[in-house]
Amino acid sequence: MKKKIGVFILTLTLMFGLCSNTVFAAYSDVYQNGWYYGAVQYVSQNGIMTGLNDTYFGVGESLKRGQFALILYRLAGTPDVEFENKFPDIGANDWYANAVIWASDNGIVTGYTDTGLFGPSDEITREQMVTMLHRFEGSPQVSADLSGYPDSGLVGAWSLAGMQWAVANGIISGDNNMLNPQGITTREVCATIIMRFQGGEYIETEAGPGGFVNPCPGANYVSSEFGYRVSPTEGASSNHQGRDYAASEGTAILAAASGKVVLVGYTSARGNYIVIDHGNGVECYYQHCSKIIASAGDIVEAGEKIAEVGSTGIVSGPHLHFEVHENGVPVDPRKYVPE
User: Fold this and answer.
1) What's the whole-number mean pLDDT along residues 192-208?
2) Residues 102-130: pLDDT tens digits?
3) What's the gap between Cα 211 and its chain centre?
4) Is 87 helix (H, G, I), strand (E, B) or coil?
5) Is 209 contained in some domain?
6) Mean pLDDT of 285-311
7) Signal peptide: which range, if any (predicted)?
């Protein structure tokens, strides 16, 4: 298991690709052959960006200042914020309020000098984004020669330090040899920037029939399949939403596919359990563990040991209860794992 460590390297260069008819399961406008595909999945998988609604990401739509403040706030871990009436157009109940106040308190954003407004619904420009990222990094002082860009004279005095830092560090390589400082940033470009800023990558998986590995190859047998059953013990559901692998205490539990550990926890029913996001809207739950090896935030590979079989929670004996969820809905694991 390995943690993804931010290396703070990004680029504002726009790239274009051909689109196929295959779309990302969660969003109708995110095409599998689009150059932005992996980036959108990465920010979605890591909870950094969400769609404009449950089925529409907003490819080609401009990013707003309030949205970008929220992105930086999430990257900072969404720290607690006490609301202050700093901007006339930011109310305590606005969805971006905490993010904007946090960013203001930390010197990352300011309002417009002529009006005092923040402009949460205003489109964010390239120089605004670079400046916020520069401040987010701590405003390192770096000089660079911008004369090679024909439009370098359009860079505002207020954004010059950030633009020089970005160019000196290869963060901006130019948009058709132009800095385009007043150009508007679209949502998929932002997703790509954030993925590179984090030094991350999307873990592509073989989600589909037969694509996953057996999560418990050391099991003695499968004791219960998905669907209706006679409850094996008091408190256990008769509507079984997973697959049970009967095995001895301590038997290895493996990641069924590559992905990111998004939750490690305990409940009285599930016992010790772990949840892995395998991409493409697929999450798997591994329950009743005696020991959990992986930690939240880990990137794991298919077949990697993540836990050990136990009898925690509501059980009639030691086993792995394995669930597969497609966009939050439990489905028969036999659609994915080998028999």
Assistant:
1) 63
2) 999 999 998 898 999 999 999 999 899 88
3) 22
4) coil
5) no
6) 92
7) 1-25
Q: What residues have CB less than 8 Å from 209, skipping those under 6 apart?
A: 335, 336
Task: Judge whether 22 lies within some domain.
Answer: no
Do 185 and 245 sit in the same domain of this protein?
no
Asked if residue 9 has pLDDT above 70, the reply is: no
Rg (alpha carbons) of the chain, rounded to whole number = 24
Alpha-helical segments (H) within 76-212: 97-105, 126-136, 160-168, 187-197
- Give domain status of residue 29, yes or no: no
Q: Do 41 and 190 belong together in one domain? A: yes
Within this chain, do residues 247 and 321 fall inside the same structural domain, yes or no? yes
Please write the tens of the pLDDT for every residue from 266-292. 998 899 999 998 877 889 999 999 999
Compute CA distances 188 → 39, 80, 197, 260, whole Å: 8, 28, 14, 21
Distance set, CA 202 to CA 49, 50, 100, 182, 234 (Å): 14, 15, 28, 30, 42
Amino acid residing at 266: Y
Report d(CA 230, CA 240) in Å as an integer.
9
Q: Which residue has the tokens 């689009």?
A: 34
Is 32 a member of any domain?
Answer: no
Domain that holds residue 159: 37-197
Residue with tokens 């109310």: 91
